[in-house]
Specification:
Length: 345
C-alpha cells in the first residue's frame, strides 16, 4: 500500500495535461493530499499549499507522488535529484512513469539508506493471461476518446459517483497510473505486453451477475498513431455493453502530433463501435462526454446541446455538469434483469 497523505509533484512542469496524475489525485482524493511541490518557473498549480519536502513531512505527508507525465515517461536528472531529496527528508516515493524508480541506482541507494519505500505504479502483475473473447456475464461500460488525455478517467469516475448516488451498483476499473493511484488497484495497460492487453482487461472486469456495472477507464484513441494498439486491445478485452465517447473540443491536433488532426466525433464513435463488436456484437453508444474546462458555461451548454442533436446521444461535461443524462440513457437501454419469483408449496 502507498502511504498517505501525499505531496504532489509538479516540478518545472508547463504542460497542464502533463500534470494529470497530480491533478487527478487532488480532485478525486483531496483528503489524502497535503500540498504540492513546484519550482518558481512552474506556472501551474493545484490550488494546494506549496511545500518543500521537509515542510511536507512536518505537515504529515508520507509519500511524494511524481504525478507528471512526459513523452516516453522518462525521469530527467532534475527529477531524480528531487526524488532523492524527498527520500532524504523522510518521504516514500511513488511514480507512474515508464522509467522505473527501481531502475535508477541512485534512487534505490537513497531509499535503502534512509529506509524509505519506492512504488512503481506502472508495474503490471505477473501471470496476466491471453485474452479469449469468450462471452461473460455482466454489464460493462468503456469510455473511449477522439484523442488521449481528453477526460476518459474523469468521465468514468464521475459515472461511478453518479450511478452510486442513484442507488446503482457500479465499480471503477482503473487502467492507467492515475486511476490506479486513485482507486488503489487496476492494471497499467500501456505497460502490458501487447499480446496480453485484452486478457488484462478480462481479468480486472470478470463476469458478474449482480446487475452492477464495471466502469472501465479508457486509454488512448483508435485515431492516435502512437496509442491505437492499446485502445484496440482494451475494446476487445472490455467486451463493453456501452460506450461513452470523450472529447476535448478545443484540442487543436492529436496530442504530441501536430501533423495529425483530431478526428470527428461521428467517425470516432463509428470506428469504436465496429472494433468493439468483435467481442460484444450488441454494444451501444450511450453518451458523449466533453471536457469544457476552457469554455464559458454558456459556450459549454450550447456545444453540449449541439453535439447531442448531431449524434442523437446525451452530451454533458461529466465533471462540470454531472452525468445524469448519460445515466438516464443507460437505464433506458439496459433494464435490470427481472428477478424470478419462486413459490414455496
Amino acid at each position: 500500500m502507498i502511504a498517505s497523505p501525499y505531496l504532489l509533484y509538479l516540478g518545472h512542469s508547463h504542460d497542464e495535461v502533463g500534470i494529470k496524475t497530480s491533478r487527478g489525485l487532488a480532485v478525486f482524493r483531496p483528503n489524502d493530499c497535503v500540498g504540492e511541490f513546484r519550482y518558481d518557473d512552474c506556472p501551474l498549480t493545484l490550488e494546494l499549499p506549496r511545500m518543500g519536502f521537509a515542510e511536507a513531512v512536518a505537515a504529515g505527508a508520507k509519500t511524494l507522488v511524481l504525478g507528471i507525465a512526459n513523452a516516453g515517461g522518462r525521469m530527467g536528472a532534475d527529477l531524480v535529484a528531487d526524488a532523492i531529496a524527498a527520500i532524504e527528508a523522510g518521504l516514500d516515493v511513488a511514480s507512474g512513469l515508464h522509467h522505473r524508480l527501481r531502475d535508477e541506482p541512485s534512487i534505490v541507494a537513497a531509499a535503502a539508506k534512509h529506509g524509505r519505500k519506492l512504488h512503481d505504479v506502472r508495474d503490471p502483475k505477473p501471470g496476466i493471461p491471453v485474452g479469449n473473447g469468450k462471452k461473460r456475464a455482466g454489464k460493462r461500460l468503456l469510455t473511449v476518446g477522439t484523442d488521449c488525455s481528453v477526460g476518459k478517467m474523469y468521465a468514468t469516475l464521475c459515472l461511478e459517483q453518479g450511478m452510486r448516488a442513484r442507488g446503482m451498483t457500479a465499480d471503477f476499473r482503473a487502467t492507467g497510473q492515475t486511476g490506479i493511484l486513485i482507486a488503489g488497484s487496476g492494471v497499467p495497460l500501456d505497460a502490458v505486453i501487447a499480446d496480453f492487453i485484452s486478457g488484462a482487461i478480462e481479468e480486472i472486469s470478470p463476469a458478474r451477475d449482480d446487475d452492477g456495472w464495471d466502469l472501465i477507464e479508457g486509454q488512448g484513441s483508435l485515431f492516435h498513431p502512437s496509442f491505437a494498439g492499446v485502445s484496440t486491445g482494451l475494446l476487445h478485452g472490455a467486451q463493453p455493453a456501452a460506450l461513452v465517447l470523450c472529447h476535448d473540443p478545443v484540442r487543436p491536433h492529436m496530442r504530441g502530433l501536430p501533423h495529425y488532426p483530431v478526428p470527428g466525433l461521428k467517425e470516432t464513435l463509428e470506428a469504436n463501435l465496429v472494433v468493439a463488436r468483435l467481442t460484444s456484437p450488441d454494444v451501444q453508444a450511450v453518451g458523449v462526454a466533453l471536457n469544457t474546462s476552457k469554455l464559458s458555461r454558456a459556450e459549454a451548454e450550447r456545444l453540449c446541446a449541439e453535439t447531442a442533436d448531431a449524434l442523437g446521444l446525451p452530451c454533458t461535461d461529466p465533471f462540470a455538469m454531472g452525468v445524469d443524462p448519460i445515466i438516464d440513457r443507460i437505464n433506458a437501454c439496459f433494464e435490470p434483469s427481472p428477478r424470478v419469483a419462486t413459490l414455496s408449496l
